Amino acid sequence: MTEILDILISANFWAAALRIATPLIFGVIGALVCERAGVLNLGIEGIFTAGAMAGWMAVWLGAGLWGGVLVAAMAGAFFGLIHAILTVPLGLSQHVSGIGVTLFATSLSYFIYRTALPDVSSPPRIEAFKPLDIPGLSDLPFLGPALFQQTPLTFLALLLVAVTAYVLYRTPLGLAIQAVGDNPAAVESQGLSVYAIRIGTVVAGSAIMALGGAFLTMSAFDAFFFGMVNGRGWICIALTVFASWRPGKALIGALLFGAFDAFQVRLQTEVGSFIPGQVFLMMPYLLSIAALIVVARRADYPRALLVPYFRGQR
Amino acid sequence: ADPVKVAAIYTVPVEQQWVSRIDKALKAAQERGEITYTFSENVANTDYERVMREYAEQGMDLVVGEAFAVERAARKVAAEYPDTAFLMGSSFGPAQPNFAVFDNWIHEPSYLSGMIAGATTKSNVIGMVGGYAIPEVNRLMNAFMEGATSVNPDVKFLVTFINSWYDPPKAKEAAFAMIDKGADILYAERFGVSDAAKEKGILAIGNVIDTASDYPGTILSSALWHMEPTIDKAIGLVASDTFEPADFGPYSFMSYGGGSFVVDESLAPADAVSAAKAKEQEILDGLFRVNVNDSEPKSTM
Amino acid sequence: MIRFEPRGPSSVSRMLGISIAAAVAALVLAAIPMAFAGLSVFEAYSLMAKGAFGSLFAFTEMLTRATPLILTGLAAAVAFRAKLWNIGAEGQLYAGALAAVAVGTGVISAPPYLLIPMVIVAGALAGGLVMLGPTLLKTRLGVDEVVTTLLLNFIILLFVQMMLEGPMKDPMGMGWPQSEPILDEAALPKLMDRMRIHWGLVIALVSSLGVYFLLKRTVWGFEIRAVGENAAAARHAGIPVTATFIRVGLLSGALAGLAGVGEVAGLKGYLTADLSPGFGYSGIVVAMLAGLSPAGVVLAALFIASIFVGADSMSRATGVSNYLADLIVAMALLCVLVSGLFLRFKIRFVGSQANPEAAE
Amino acid sequence: MAGPAQDAGVVLRLDGITKRFGALTANGDVSLDLKQGEILALLGENGAGKTTLMNILFGHYVADEGRVMVSPDGSGLSELEPGSPHAALQAGIGMVHQHFTLAENLSALDNILLGTERLAALSSSRAPARRKLEELMARSGLTVSLDARISQLSVGEKQRVEILKALYRDARVLVLDEPTAVLTPQESDTLFATLKKLADDGLGIIFISHKLAEVLASSHRVAVLRGGRKVADLPTAECDRRKLAELMVGHAIVETMRSPGTPGAPLFVLNKASAGHGRDALHAVDLTLKSGEILGIAGVSGNGQTTLARVISGLEPLTQGSMTLEGTVIGHASARTMIDNGLARIPEDRHHDGIVGAMSVSENLAIEAIRKPENQRLGLLRFSAMRERARNLIKAYDIRCQSEDSPARLLSGGNIQKIVLARTLETVPKVVLAAQPSRGLDVGATSDVHKRLLAARDRGAGVILISEDLDELMRLSDRIAVIHRGHLSEAEPSETLDRGSLGLRMAGHNAEDAA
Ligand SMILES: Nc1ncnc2c1ncn2[C@@H]1O[C@H](COP(=O)(O)OP(=O)(O)OP(=O)(O)O)[C@@H](O)[C@H]1O
Ligand SMILES: Nc1ncnc2c1ncn2[C@@H]1O[C@H](COP(=O)(O)OP(=O)(O)OP(=O)(O)O)[C@@H](O)[C@H]1O
Ligand SMILES: [Mg+2]
Ligand SMILES: [Mg+2]
User: Fold this and answer.
1) Taking each helix axis from N to C terminus, what angle separates C89-104 and C145-165, rounded to the nearest 10 degrees?
2) Where does the secretion signal sit in this chain (chain A) (predicted)?
3) Sequence-separated contacts (24+) of D416-419 with Cβ below 8 Å
4) Residue C243: CB within 6 Å of ligand 1?
5) Are A40 and A305 in contact (CB under 8 A)?
6) Residues of B206-239 as b/e, b for ≥16 C-beta within 10 angstroms?
7) How many CB atoms lie within 10 A of CB D147?
């Protein structure tokens, strides 16, 4: 018991939770934005991979770190655009299109990586983002190490949560996005283009998702590996529901998942000799389901989620 | 003579440390003009048998691969193509007429790197992060632990498996967790662990591949695997038409040059280095045998 | 501006024409990365065709790869028909495989005509039971099944690994996390000597017929369709909505479980944690490509399998990175997806000056 | 072409509009003028093409032929860009759709603001908008709470938000598609008073309605569509009920009148029944339905009718009290047991709760009895029997559809209602629960529904008629009870009641006050 407490009151633990949560924050915010506009984006796992690969490769080719972030976002936007065109004006199944985009983005990233780098036995490294040292804040007891020794992308993720919440709730564009996910007819009858708003939102959301991938290769690590996204995108889809499509709750959900994960690696070394390691690895998933059961009744679906909109059709 | 036609089948991408050693040895042979080399990577378990057959049908002289999770199927295919030589990573023995096996038998240098680590640690806590608890990994970890305790009975181990071969961010997090627990040396079975060590200014033990130049001042010691002796031997036999199904495992032993031990003498205590070197000589002279223990290592804290 | 106008049922020739157009579009698209990799495109395509259909071996391999896809495709199709979004076929497949191994590796000894059915039933049951959880959570507590089934995939795979490293580990496996081999009496027989094709294919085809029959001709199928199309109206009309969801969940999970049975008892002979390269997820694609129709599932699975096996073989024959195979599958999928539009809609491109007078 | 003199005061002109959906001509060469300050009523049967015409006007649909001309500022008619709601809004056309086009997850204010601001704006300027709206509300009498989420508003309030949306954009032409279909009589009266005021301010107004009384009372001019073509366009003063009905359906309509019933023994009883929660809950409701009578339940929607209907249908359990059918207490009801016990139910929302749109007409006709031997044997469906039965019902109930195999979704509202009637009444039910059975139906379809309900009663069934339409209630019911805030008054013979006192009681005044 005391070990568990020790873990929970350690600043390093919370720093790890925030680090692990960062790609999830990008992912869940991106997924949430798309779904708020009524489009489920199962392309997320592939968009993560594309962001991870493209961002890393741009830096490797000399674009600079922020140049890499931009390229990652553009890669995300590109695949988002494919998904958006297939699902919005063409009204195709969002499930298949999403999984198709995942297959496409993943295999294209792998193919490009391998074709560009056929002969690497050890993957090339880049100079990744370093934790920021913010004078004053980073030296605070507990909070300093827990919050203020993160890389810039973590702060970008946190900023993005606030910006997303602001845009969604406070700007005309945000209102239009919310409306188009609830009742596209309401948007059209007010003279706005359902397609433009949906496509734009999905493209933007996908660009955000891709940053989650970029974080993996440019912040959490400094090289690209096949399979390194490792299901993180799917977790974000789950977190979106958990968050009831709200940015604030999405942040909490991602942090919670990060904390579960940071907790399980620590617990594993504590009591790992009695319990199979898989039990610990299951923990974040099991706890996510448990958390979902608690919030389930209050889940507030965007009513037009998954429903394609065709003008003038019954 | 014509170059030997070699195909390799990997269940993981060639970046994976293990596979990269095979790939490296084969590419070197190709450079020398001894072989033509082609490979399929990331082959799914369910496709493995088909890929083997396709290469055999293409008239490959030698097929190199990992039979670990496809043992029975691989042996069956090999039996159906007696004209092709198969050299497969396997925990089992060779089989007539053409199925030879190898494995990464670098438990010896692992033991030696353990000796260095055991003597160097100040906190007496060593963290070990692995991908999966498979025999090929367990064996090296166990040898390492034995080496460490042989010089320092007080040393304790933290063990975590991250359940993935390529999730460096995750491996890094596991390593950070161990540093929080007081580990001052990390056994880097996966990419990501040495990065955590470097970031936190502690030491790491390399495994299979040499990463010392990527992490200057961080890699204390490494147990390296060299596939060249194994591959070159097999190619030679195939080229001279004298390939026999045998256990090529010993070619990974230190005495054949298949395994080697390196230590950064600026980071390790001098007496530890000399003790390890002495033990290395004993191993090479056949005076000391490192135990082989394939069971899953557990934390001892 | 593009406009869509729904069209009625399409003629066979039209469907054929569009399918061919989709295939051509996919091939043209796939030529881009091929050319990029320095391949001669025509040669690559002929190698691809050879890789999937060029020999008895190639053809049976293609069918072998299609077998689990048919079953996971059916699993998704049945569930999606009722708007039960089962994204968990991957986990259910592993559960089925685990159960098959639990029954088929010597715990019970019986002659094949008893043991094989027991293995099949155990696998189906395990898959069904795994899906029962999310179904009950949905119907009783309103928990979204997309999330629960998705997360269960990870949990079950970890559970399988735990079993393979623990109680179900093969003591003769040299420490490898794998199960004991399935007894010969429990294994699904091969359909052909020296080939991998096995009775799992027959199970898959019979299942597809069964599902077709169920949906089309039975009261339960009627209820599934009604619940899927409009659960509220179905409930008002006295259809037991909860019971229908549970039935569909069990059936869907059982079909995915059967896919697992086929892979271990028909193909591999023992269970490892890398049994499936994502058959469960591909099943969703198969089902949707098929428009959720059971017969279509068979065709879609064959399509996906032949593209993959052909492209994979082609990459080997030409020495290009075999990641190209997945890329071609993805491109083909997207093309076929788009082509479906031309079946459902008349598509008119309306100029920006829709005003006839403007031209005068 | 029309000369300038004829154009004077015309704010909107539809010129030879034709619109086809496949083989169906929804609008055939329709031309129509609307003058400033004029209220034009657009009439027609279900499916006559009214909504289609208005959707073309607003740019939701593009006409195959013809054009729409508007005079945005009174200066002269110019052609409106087809297919662009944005252009229509710019030209000062406001539209209140037949089905609400509101985002339920936003506040009333945000719904009104939607699309009126630059999307790239960094913030939404709610404060000035609120001021303008408060002024508008004061002037027009259309009050709503601007900060409430749409999902929390009653239908009447939603309707007002829809109109405010148009007025906020300074509409010159206001189109309302069946605005009163879901309003109470009081709400309708208020609405028309408002519309009059707006017309006097210079707006041109088109409204669509099936309620002839309000058309006669509130419009200046009437246009009638039949089968997509305009068959009449004349001043309201020259019309009466009978004439309008005839113009719409092409032949005379006999409005159903009730003959006194012969009530028998108590059939269905609710005793101190409570259920549900919140606004729509039921509190200790007593209700006794006799065989051979129609019991009307009057009330403003949202006062517990939905819960009452759900309880009787077996979709919602009682939290207190009991439910008795033919003397047997029904403990744990489900939709299935109630249907098996002889309940026929006509749901309030026929599209959502009544039919499975993607299934065929014949399947929808069989759905309630799908487990009965006539539809299945050993779990296998008997298709030929189902279709045979469907063909008979289609004939008997005059369901207009291409065939028994067409998807039910394609049918018009009235014909969908007939499917529900056919499948429920055909079982010779003991109790019929009809919730808003003629909402949105044209005169012909309405009279058909009424005839069927009366026939069921005459056959000995007890009918519970939940309605907001007082005319319908007075015409059909033997006794009427009023529901308000989940409390149900004692049912009284309809002869002893009048519209006025019923209306007051629906608004919450008790019987003594009303008297
Ligand atoms: N429109 C819908 N779309 C999707 N799922 C729905 C819908 N309506 C209901 N459900 C799901 O179906 C579940 C079952 O509903 P419910 O228990 O009311 O059915 P029922 O008719 O009472 O069934 P039974 O008679 O078998 O008890 C609900 O809890 C909900 O999760
Ligand atoms: N998008 C569409 N696709 C196909 N048919 C349509 C479409 N919209 C309308 N129709 C058909 O056009 C005809 C006219 O429909 P419309 O909605 O204009 O009728 P309406 O007069 O408004 O009827 P109601 O009184 O029921 O509202 C109907 O037969 C309808 O089925
Ligand atoms: Mg129930
Ligand atoms: Mg209409």
Assistant:
1) 30
2) none
3) D416/D350, D416/D351, D416/D354, D416/D355, D417/D346, D417/D350, D417/D354, D417/D441, D417/D445, D417/D449, D418/D445, D418/D448, D419/D354, D419/D355, D419/D361, D419/D364, D419/D365
4) yes
5) yes
6) bbbbbbbebbeebbbbbbbbbbbbbbbbbbebbb
7) 11
Cβ atoms A22, A290 nearer than 8 A = no
The distance of Cα D84 from the centroid of its chain, to the nearest Å, equals 27
Query: What are the helix (H) ranges across chain B?
Result: 17-31, 45-57, 71-80, 107-120, 135-151, 168-180, 193-200, 228-239, 270-284
Mention every residue, 6+ apart, whose C-beta is less than 8 A from residue D373: none
Mean pLDDT score of chain B: 92
> Residue holding tokens 């889940």?
A299
Q: Is the pLDDT of residue D351 over 70?
A: yes
Q: Structure tokens of C332? A: 């083909």
* Residues C252, C279 contacting (CB under 8 angstroms): no
- How far apart CA D227 and CA C192 sit, in angstroms, is 65
> What is the residue type of D451?
K
- Around Cβ A245, how many Cβ atoms within 10 Å? 24
A104 pLDDT above the threshold of 50 = yes
In whole angstroms, how large is the CA radius of gyration of chain C? Answer: 22
> Per residue in D291-348, pLDDT tens?
999 999 998 777 889 899 999 999 999 999 999 998 888 887 888 999 988 999 999 8
Matching residue, tokens 């983005």: A105
Beta bridge partners of D480: D296, D492
Distance between CA atoms of residues B219 and B196, nearest Å: 12
- CA pair distance D475, D456, nearest whole angstrom: 15
pLDDT score for C72: 97
Taking the C-alpha atoms of residue B50 and residue D313, their distance in angstroms, rounded to an integer, is 60
pLDDT reading at B71 higher than 80: yes
Phi-psi region of D94 (alpha: psi -120 to 50; beta: other; left: phi over 0): beta
Closest ligand, as measured to the CA of C244: 1
Question: Residues D459-515: pLDDT tens digits?
Answer: 999 999 999 888 889 999 999 999 988 999 999 998 888 888 887 888 777 655 544
Residue C358 is predicted with a pLDDT of 31
Burial class (CB in 10 A: 0-12, 13-18, 19+), C169: middle
Using a CB-CB cut-off of 8 Å, the residues of chain A touching C154 are: 231, 282, 285
Rounded to whole angstroms, the Cα distance separating C239 from C222 reads 10
Closest Cβ opposite residue B15 in set A12, A225, A268? A225
Residue of A nearest to B170 (CA): A20
pLDDT at D74 over 60: yes
Contact D367 C226 (CB under 8 A): yes
- Rounded CA gap, D126 and D114, in Å? 11
Tell which residue, D176, D41, D209, has the closest CA to residue A189.
D176
Using CA atoms, how far apart are residues C208 and C225, in angstroms rounded to an integer?
Answer: 17
Which of A278, A252, A256 has the alpha carbon at shortest distance from A267?
A: A278
CB B208 within 8 A of CB B262: no
Minimum distance, in Å, between the CA of residue B119 and any CA atom of chain C: 30
User: Could you tell me if the CB of C236 is within 6 A of ligand 1?
Assistant: no
Tell me how far the alpha carbon of residue D487 lies from the centroid of ligand 1, in angstroms: 28
Q: Where are the domains of chain A?
A: 12-116+147-230
Q: Which of C316, C323, C324 to mutate to test the interface with B (most CBs of B within 10 A)?
A: C316
Q: What is the three-class DSSP state of B85?
A: strand
Tokens (6 digits) for B274: 């000399």
* CA D156/CA D182 separation, integer angstroms: 7
Q: What one-letter code names the amino acid at C257?
A: G
How many whole angstroms from C84 Cα to the centroid of ligand 3? Answer: 17
